[in-house]
């Protein structure tokens, strides 16, 4: 058998893995050293050329976004450090199999060199955490064993482990573990889809007089979902997938912190009912993607209860606050939600995917029940063999609960809570630095671990601010100096573009946050100087922008 055909499981699996893991670890180190920053320089064209060169495509010519050949970066061919004397890194010479450890080291070096690394303090754009080494090692065990959770006989221990973890997480959010239910998902998008699917079947089945999952959508009903203007786009996507249509989602106004206005929700629900429409769900957000804003959950729960509407809480980001004694009170009222999304690959420091979906009452899961005679035959379940098949939208499903369970066993809620508090402190330090800088403007006080702000150009014009902030971010990406987030506030007209630091690295120091903000300012000043030169203005004409 070829050397690369060894298996990862069985008694011999660990011995087969050891040299390959050494190669991967060496490639991780090599790639990080070659990258030398939070992401590769050169932008999309540079990365495309890097990959092509590493894969042996020496005829590849990088092109710009317009399709024209990209300008040289002055740093030599991006793939030179990885290209060899003619061997293709994935095929060896003349298409013959290559040594597995050599292939892995080369391609891991390529991947690492060409990655945005959330472990770098200057990589702070997205809800994209640097995973704990412990969790990554746990994930390796899952990959090596390759269990699948669609039947007990493919994942005996993993089935029990996920069941126990779901009980613990139900207790964490304030549900009764004895009556709640849930499953590990691929993330908030899947979890939100599940919550809205169950709410659809609950509301429309009750109103239409038949099981929606069996008979389809009643034709004489007008379903409506209520979510804030700052809710995640997956709410609209779920409405489309569920046959309701994106227009079934009613956007509820928000305040400056992007929190849903309860009075506006009450009015919109009253109007919808008055028109004969059927409210399907209220979607509250506990941790908006941009500001980390948390909707007023107790008030929204009261309103949903008054109208008899399903309350789903998207806590994919803010659910991490439950790990912190300091921040957990922000989620007061979450225990009243009918369903809930959590993401441990955000404020949980897990490698993706690590989502969680929970329902307060297990009986509301009924529409997902599924019998497949080759996976969960009734006589097996009667004989005591449990099945998770009816808890998930997926069939084949890896046991992502294992890495979460390993992390909780090692660090506990207290240890993870310290990490949450550290990142919260970093966000407040960033906010203080922004407030103190004359060329920066803070949008709002951080709630969780995100600081939203913008660079203030000399003109002070809203359209100029939008253009310069968008451009400085791309400048930082192209130069490989920083990964900073970009968003737009709700509303219309210019002046809504903002930058954001999503601080999920508990090893980042306040000094490194200050350095990142100084880099943003320098990029903004450089953009203004370049704009002035393109406009033919004399050097130094822009106040506060050094020539």
TrEMBL record:
Domain of life: Bacteria
Ranges where the record places region Disordered: 60-102, 527-547
Keyword Lyase listed: yes
Biased segments, Basic and acidic residues type: 85-96
SUPFAM superfamilies reported in the protein's UniProt record: PLP-dependent transferases (SSF53383)
Signal sequence extent: none
Cofactor or coenzyme needed: pyridoxal 5'-phosphate
InterPro entries from the UniProt entry: PyrdxlP-dep_de-COase, PyrdxlP-dep_Trfase, PyrdxlP-dep_Trfase_major, PyrdxlP-dep_Trfase_small
Keywords: Decarboxylase, Lyase, Pyridoxal phosphate
Family, similarity comment: Belongs to the group II decarboxylase family.
Stated name of the protein: Pyridoxal phosphate-dependent decarboxylase family protein
UniProt organism field: Streptomyces ehimensis
């Amino acid at each position: 058998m070829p050397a690369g055909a060894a298996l990862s499981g069985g008694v011999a699996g660990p011995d087969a893995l050891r040299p390959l893991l050494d190669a991967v670890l060496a490639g991780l180190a090599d790639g990080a050293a070659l990258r030398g920053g939070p992401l590769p320089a050169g932008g999309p064209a540079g990365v495309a050329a890097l990959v092509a060169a590493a894969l042996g495509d020496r005829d590849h010519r990088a092109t710009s976004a317009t399709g024209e050949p990209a300008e040289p970066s002055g740093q030599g061919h991006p793939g030179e450090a990885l290209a060899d004397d003619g061997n293709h890194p994935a095929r060896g010479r003349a298409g013959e199999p290559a040594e597995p450890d050599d292939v892995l080291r080369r391609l891991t070096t390529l991947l690492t060199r060409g990655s945005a690394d959330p472990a770098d303090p200057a990589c702070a754009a997205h809800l994209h955490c640097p995973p704990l080494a412990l969790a990554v090692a746990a994930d390796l065990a899952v990959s090596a064993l390759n269990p699948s959770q669609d039947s007990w006989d493919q994942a005996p221990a993993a089935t029990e482990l996920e069941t126990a973890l779901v009980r613990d997480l139900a207790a964490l959010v304030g549900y009764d573990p004895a009556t709640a239910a849930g499953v590990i998902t691929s993330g908030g998008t899947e979890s939100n889809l599940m919550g809205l699917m169950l709410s659809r079947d609950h509301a429309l089945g009750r109103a239409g007089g038949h099981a929606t999952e069996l008979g389809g959508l009643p034709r004489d009903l007008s379903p409506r979902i209520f979510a804030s203007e700052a809710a995640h786009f997956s709410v609209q996507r779920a409405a489309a997938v569920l046959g309701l249509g994106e227009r079934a989602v009613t956007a509820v106004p928000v305040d400056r912190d992007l929190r849903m206005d309860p009075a506006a929700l009450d009015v919109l629900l009253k109007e919808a009912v008055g028109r004969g429409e059927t409210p399907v769900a209220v979607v509250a957000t506990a941790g908006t993607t941009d500001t980390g804003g948390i909707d007023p959950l107790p008030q929204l729960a009261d309103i949903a209860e008054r109208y008899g509407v399903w309350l789903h809480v998207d806590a994919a980001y803010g659910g991490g606050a439950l790990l912190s004694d300091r921040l957990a009170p922000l989620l007061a009222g979450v225990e009243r939600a009918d369903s809930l999304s959590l993401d441990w690959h955000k404020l949980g420091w897990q490698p993706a995917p690590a989502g969680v979906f929970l329902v307060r009452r297990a009986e509301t899961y009924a529409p997902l029940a599924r019998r497949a005679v080759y996976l969960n035959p009734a006589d097996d379940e009667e004989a005591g063999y449990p099945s998770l098949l009816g808890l998930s939208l997926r069939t084949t499903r890896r046991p992502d609960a294992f890495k979460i369970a390993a992390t909780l066993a090692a660090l506990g809620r207290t240890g993870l809570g310290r990490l949450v508090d550290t990142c919260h402190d970093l966000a407040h330090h960033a906010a203080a630095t922004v407030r103190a800088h004359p060329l920066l403007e803070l949008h709002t006080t951080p709630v969780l671990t995100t600081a939203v702000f913008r660079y203030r150009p000399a003109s002070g014009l809203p359209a100029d601010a939008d253009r310069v902030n968008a451009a400085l971010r791309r400048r930082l990406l192209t130069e490989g100096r920083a990964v900073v987030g970009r968003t737009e506030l709700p509303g219309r007209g210019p002046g809504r573009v903002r930058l954001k630091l999503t601080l999920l690295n508990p090893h980042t120091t306040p000094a490194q946050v200050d350095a990142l903000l100084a880099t943003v300012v320098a990029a903004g000043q450089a953009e203004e100087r370049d704009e002035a030169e393109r406009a033919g203005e004399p050097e130094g004409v822009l106040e506060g922008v050094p020539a």
